[in-house]
Design goal:
By secondary structure, this protein is an alpha/beta fold. It folds into two domains: 57-268, 3-Layer(aba) Sandwich (Rossmann fold), CATH 3.40.50; 281-401, Aspartate Aminotransferase, domain 1 (Alpha-Beta Complex). It is built from twelve helices and ten strands. α4 links the parallel β5 (154-158) and β6. α4 crosses α5 (227-236), α6 crosses α8 (368-380) and α10 (403-409) runs antiparallel to α11 (414-421).
């Protein structure tokens, strides 16, 4: 026998609704008041929320009343990730800031407003929201030209990185610093967290013979630096062309520690590119992105789990999962699955493979995951040829060396491959120490 449902009387419903409205209003007031967030520099809406545990460089700049930019003509290098802790666009903030004249915008891969696809060239344009010129640094030019910098006193960089060398935004950082040095333009970095934290380093520093837009600096693949720290190291180590240095100032964050993952900062994640929609994707990018460059084993791009998968039509999921789990990689588990990418490699084809889980992200080593997957696929499916196609060169570029490919081609053990992969990491750890801004 079913219990009868009781209907509340109208007076109770009205009282309950009024109470909910009052509670919601009080909550909104408390959230806004508790934040101690600087007053918005624009007329736009501000997301009401408690102040994050970490205050971004742009929020520190606002709190300082824009003093480092006072009276300056500013060129801003940014994209949709350039926001305050309350999600105001840095473009809007500087466009409306008193005493600051924003005169030009510069966009990395995907463009100032983030509308372009991965790898697509972006044209110069006028920004519709501000009417300012929006120069592309991922098209005909990858470095600001003297013409672009005419009338600019200072370049400001505010872009969220994901902590891996092959992500092109830090190449844009280095080339923009170089242009600033050559054209006597000051350079300011508004610092942001490394979503992988600041302690982890993996993958040998780049051999400059393999320098490209997906690897421009002699740093490990997972570098453990914020963009502000990296900028200081670029300057201090004279990595710019001809050893030049720029007039650099970093506006540090407040409250960030090297041990923090993104979800411990209290900050909202803005997708850094179409295939990095969530902060944890930054870890999976490091775990499978190099492998994905070959175009042989899908890393899940084209499916709703970008960089979290490894598979191809030939693979038997259970066998691959068993082989990988037998290796007992610390903090990592592999679940067998079938998936069908909507686009990219193997579009509309059923792939067998694994989903990668980071069961203990602090213990997990990220970059070796893809090399174990490649080694396991070669063992289980000898007919699969990972190399010998047109993407070999890109694999070498993202690895920063051709030694990893050559070891795989020679059938060397995975232990030898990983040992070679991590050569030079500890020497870099010592080299970077004097440029660190945070404990």
């Amino acid at each position: 026998m079913r219990a009868r449902l009781c209907r509340p009387c109208p007076l109770v419903l009205l009282t309950s609704r009024l109470a909910l409205v009052l509670i919601a209003g009080l909550g909104l007031f408390a959230c806004t008041a508790a934040g101690d967030e600087p007053k918005p520099a624009t007329g736009g809406a501000v997301m009401p929320r408690d102040r994050p545990a970490v205050r971004l460089g742009v929020d520190v700049l606002i709190a300082e009343d824009f003093k480092p930019l006072a009276g300056k003509r500013v060129g801003l290098i940014t994209n949709p990730t350039g926001v305050t802790g309350s999600l105001q666009s840095t473009i809007d903030v500087l466009h409306h800031a008193k005493g600051v004249k924003l005169v030009a915008l510069f966009g990395p891969e995907h463009g100032v407003r983030g509308a372009a696809a991965a790898g697509a060239e972006v044209d110069d344009a006028n920004d519709p929201a501000t009417g300012l010129p929006a120069y592309s640094l991922y098209g005909k030019h990858h470095k600001p030209t003297p013409e672009m910098l005419k009338g600019v006193d200072v370049l400001v960089y505010d872009i969220q990185d994901i902590g891996s060398r092959s992500y092109t935004y830090i190449t844009t950082l280095a080339l923009a610093m170089e242009a600033a040095a050559e054209n006597k333009v000051a350079f300011v970095v508004l610092d942001r967290p490394n979503p992988l934290g600041g302690a982890r380093m993996e993958g040998r520093p780049l051999d400059l013979k393999f320098r490209s837009s997906v690897g421009h600096l002699p740093i490990p693949y997972v570098h453990g630096l914020t963009v502000g720290e990296l900028a200081q190291m670029i300057n201090g180590e004279h990595w710019l062309k001809d050893g030049v240095t720029c007039d650099l100032r970093v506006i540090p964050m407040q409250g960030w520690k090297r041990s923090l993952w993104w979800d411990q900062t209290g900050l909202v994640w803005i997708p850094t590119s179409p295939h990095v929609p969530r902060p944890e994707t930054a870890a999976f990018y490091a775990a499978t992105g190099i492998m994905g460059e070959l175009g042989v084993i899908s890393e899940g791009v084209g499916y709703p789990l970008p960089f979290e998968l490894a598979g191809m039509p030939e693979i038997e999921p259970q066998k691959l999962a068993d082989e990988l789990n037998r290796r007992h990689l610390p903090g990592v588990f592999f679940r067998p699955l079938f998936f069908q990418p909507y686009y990219s490699h193997y579009a509309n084809q059923t792939c067998g493979g694994v989903q990668i889980y980071l069961t203990d992200r602090d213990r997990a080593e990220l970059t070796p995951i893809q090399f174990h997957v490649m080694d396991a696929v070669c063992k289980l499916h000898p007919a699969v040829k990972l190399f010998g196609a047109k993407r070999d060169g890109m694999f070498d570029k993202v690895c920063g060396t051709d030694e990893i490919r050559k070891l795989f081609e020679a059938g060397r053990p995975i232990g030898e491959i990983l040992s070679t992969w991590n050569q030079g990491v500890e020497a870099f750890r010592a080299q970077r120490a004097k440029y660190l801004l945070y404990e």
